[in-house]
Design brief:
By secondary structure, this protein is an alpha/beta fold. The protein has 5 helices and 7 strands; from the N terminus they run ααββαβββββαα.
Length: about 170
């Protein structure tokens, strides 16, 4: 279980990634990304589901699994949903808080849990709510080499090779 917001190595790699991204993304790319909805809300089997990237409040808010329940309850109360699906941390989990199922669906491109495979969540609604995390292998080495060929930092290729578990030693 994660004990802090981000480790020093996660902060360093995140900052480097942000610098690279800002240098690569065009004005047109940014305009397109800003045009996308920041959430998707739908209802199925009598359950209201909200899909966001980070949290219902902010696209870049981290909702780690060990976040205190009181903090989550305060965040969830005003949104009136049964299911909240999100990502951003790249760490899959399902947690039931108050009356809301919180599902972090994992990562399909930059895992942080030591498993190099892509991860997604299958959610079964209805009488018996269930979440199953599926893992899909892919050619990580091919992707890592492509990143290097595209002049992305070597550490990012290594990050993929080890499933996000980069050591500081």
């Amino acid at each position: 279980m994660r004990l802090s917001y981000r480790t020093p190595i996660e902060k360093e790699t995140g900052d480097a990634s942000l610098i690279w991204t800002k240098a690569q993304v065009t004005k047109e790319n940014k305009a397109y990304l800003r045009s996308l909805p920041n959430h998707i809300l739908w209802e199925r089997d009598g359950m209201r589901t909200l899909l966001v990237h980070g949290s219902p409040r902010r696209i870049n808010e981290y909702l780690y699994e060990n976040r205190p329940e009181g903090s989550l309850v305060r965040m969830l109360e005003p949104i009136n949903v049964d299911v909240l699906i999100f990502g951003h941390t790249h760490l899959p989990y399902h947690r039931h808080v108050s009356v809301v199922h919180m599902v972090n669906d994992g990562s399909t491109g930059r895992p942080k849990d030591g498993d190099t495979r892509a991860c997604y969540a299958m959610i079964e609604t209805g009488v018996d709510f269930q979440v199953v995390f599926k893992r899909v292998p892919y050619d990580v080495e091919e992707v890592a080499e492509t990143l290097i060929q595209k002049d992305l930092p070597e550490w990012l290729a290594e990050y993929l090779r080890v499933g996000g578990k980069i050591s500081t030693s």
